[in-house]
Amino acid sequence: MIMEPLLLAKLVAELRSGQRDLCAFVEEVCERIEVVEPSVQAFLPEPERAGRLLYEAARLQQRFPDPAQRPPLYGVLVGVKDIFRVDGFLTRAGSQLPPELFAGNEASCVSRLRKAGALILGKTVTTEFASDESGPTRNPHNLEHTPGGSSSGSAAAVAAGLCPLALGTQTAGSVIRPAAFCGIVGFKPTYGRIAADGVIPYSVSIDTIGLLTQDVAGSALAAAVLCSGWKTPVSATQRPRLGVPGGPYLRQASEEALLDFERQVRILERAGYSVKRVGAFSDIQAINSSHRQLTSAEMAQVHANWFPVHQARYRPRTAAKIRAGQQVSAEQITLARAGRSCLRLEMETLMQQKGIDLWISPAAAGPAPAGLVQTGDTAMNRPWSYAGMPALTISAGKAANGLPLGLQLVAPAMADEQLLAWAEPMAVLLKIATDHQA
């Protein structure tokens, strides 16, 4: 169910210049949704979507008749994960709880997108409260497989060519993993660089708003609008020095993922990239445990008022996670929160000592699993999310069953701009190799 990709930067240039008519573009996308959405189910239903969007598009045209005055995301259609508050839409967070519980001011990141000229295409499907209980969304590359979670609908919508940009969130692997499963770009900025107000929290110490696009240039364009203090990176003449975090962390990936990762490394080395293998995350099980304790405890705190009243409406795995979080002691929470900055310092110090600019690893433990019950393993993403470091996945290969595999790139905190700048030529290189592989 893959249609022609919508490349954000190219599309914006066409819409802003008038080369592409905005209302005609909206009609085209709505027709795509009619064809694809019954199978992929990336969006929450909206009966009058086309009429609403055409009205909003016409108003946008009236506001900005002069192409030279059009804002940076003029006419871009955005999918928004249904844990973000968006004016004009109910927020359900993938749950059966009354949506009135989640009412409030629109997320400031959504308001920033609107101010930049974007139009909200619709709410995208999320797992229940961005946790483990999946929704109906299917992987556009193979409808019998999961698109990943928890930003399931956002990843599938971009992959299927229904929108050029979607918002997701990541607490463990909820942007990077579905992007890898769906063969697109997922960008998780440094923790806190995109304001998270107006978003139903999972774990306030870790939750990070992320972007899903078809290419790196699109992520950079959207990041410049959404990330605080964004600066255009200085053009680097030298390639980044890459580090592979060897040891127990990497061994969590499947044999197939590791074999293809080694193929990706060889491609990069042949192209002139320096790759160092460095022992890291020797205590990965302790890191996983700290992440699990902190996220479940903070989830229990978020749901402290809702869960006792609406317990019967929660699905089993969500309820179990909240109950587990209720058992985490205050001391354990304090230690787990402190562990985040310690891990970040450890990994960034290691980068400085070993002369590494970017860490690279498989973006997921393997290709998208079959079925819709499980959304996949977060092991490859969890420590980076816990540390709050910026991460990006680019499509980098194909599994034996034809499903996409991704390469994850991680930079030091607040080096988001450089991460995206370095990633673009790497993405082009690996796409050429993947196309040749196919």
Automatic annotation (TrEMBL):
Example GO molecular function: catalytic activity
Ranges annotated as biased composition (Polar residues): 130-140
PANTHER family xrefs: AMIDASE DOMAIN-CONTAINING PROTEIN, TRANSAMIDASE
Domain of life per record: Bacteria
Protein name: Amidase
Annotated segments matching region Disordered: 130-152
Any coiled-coil regions, as ranges: none
Organism the protein comes from: Dictyobacter alpinus
Domain named Amidase: residues: 25-420
Organism ancestry: Bacteria, Bacillati, Chloroflexota, Ktedonobacteria, Ktedonobacterales
